[in-house]
Design brief:
314 residues; alpha+beta; 3-stranded mixed sheet; 9 helices
């Protein structure tokens, strides 16, 4: 179900769902594998979502839906699109397939530029249904859907549908504009893309820039070598506390982690199996899977999930 925040509603900002977003990226890598993720190396082309007043409504909707299916690698799925009055932007009936029935809000009969955005979310629901990938709660599952759509190349359309000015407050989906920007930046870094030229909404581009800054901070957290001086000092303090503490975990829970907590940057210290050495665990900046490496100098760590090689100073 694509949520539609219309002109009378306020638009939430910031990163309130970042923990679920990161868990969603991890879940995608676990379900699809690093090689599977890399098959989504081509983002949805803007021309495939173009749909103007001169196009036949239903033929145009089917064309855009088919393009979204191709972008999300669902060649044996067929979307049957219809229009009706409804509160949501769109909904999809999940079944065994190969046909799936998508209902979209009547407003898209005339506001056609955003139809591809609504369809991107619904087709991603079909993809996750086929992958049997879901989170327990409804809200978390919708965040997973937005994250998957964006990380796999079609969700930038949802961000581009965000517009906010004196007359209009519109966004689709369940992520904030900045969170969409964060996920899009993560994808851009993985595939070497530059989404800056895709946006037709100035507000969407600004949200992408803010999200990109947050994503870049993930790569500058200790014990990564790229961490800044303040992060390094906090890490050293936490390491000293960890080395002198008996027991398993020392970190955010004990109040000594640097930048620990809601931003996902917590690192934790623990003794290895022999009890002699100290190890630190921290989230991979690419897939958010926690890594565990020995404490004791500069080293290179390879994430077993996304296969990223990281320079660390532990």
């Amino acid at each position: 179900m694509t949520q539609n925040r219309g002109r009378n509603g306020s638009v939430e900002h910031g990163f309130p769902h970042l923990a679920i977003v990161r868990a969603s990226i991890t879940a995608l890598f676990r379900r699809l594998s690093a090689d599977g993720i890399r098959t989504y190396d081509t983002s949805f082309a803007a021309v495939d979502g173009a749909f103007d007043a001169g196009d036949d409504l239903h033929l145009g909707a089917q064309r855009v839906a088919a393009a979204t299916v191709r972008a999300l690698r669902l060649p044996d799925a067929r979307m049957v699109v219809s229009f009706r009055e409804m509160e949501q932007a769109a909904t999809v009936e999940l079944a065994a397939g190969p046909e799936y029935f998508v209902e979209v809000n009547d407003r898209f009969r005339t506001h056609r530029r955003d139809l591809a955005a609504a369809l991107a979310h619904e087709v991603t629901h079909v993809l996750l249904h086929r992958l049997d990938l879901r989170f327990p709660g409804t809200a978390e599952n919708e965040i997973l859907t937005d994250t998957a759509a964006t990380y796999l190349g079609a969700g930038w359309l949802l961000l581009d549908a965000y517009r906010e000015d004196a007359l209009t407050h519109q966004r689709f989906g369940y992520l904030t504009p900045e969170e969409f920007g964060y996920v899009l930046a993560k994808r851009a870094a993985l595939f070497g893309e530059d989404p800056a030229t895709w946006f037709t909404s100035p507000q969407a581009y600004e949200a992408y820039v803010r999200g990109r800054a947050q994503a870049e901070r993930d790569h500058r957290r200790a014990p990564l070598t790229a961490a800044g001086p303040l992060a390094r000092r906090r890490y050293a303090k936490a390491r000293r506390a960890g080395a002198g503490t008996a027991g398993a975990d020392v970190g955010a829970e004990a109040g000594v982690g640097a930048g620990a907590g809601a931003d996902g940057s917590a690192y934790r210290f623990e003794r290895d199996g022999s009890g002699a050495g100290l190890r630190v665990s921290f989230p991979c900046p690419v897939c958010a899977q926690r890594l565990r490496v020995p404490v004791g100098g500069r080293l290179r760590a390879r994430c077993g999930l996304c296969r990223t090689v990281l320079d660390c100073t532990t």
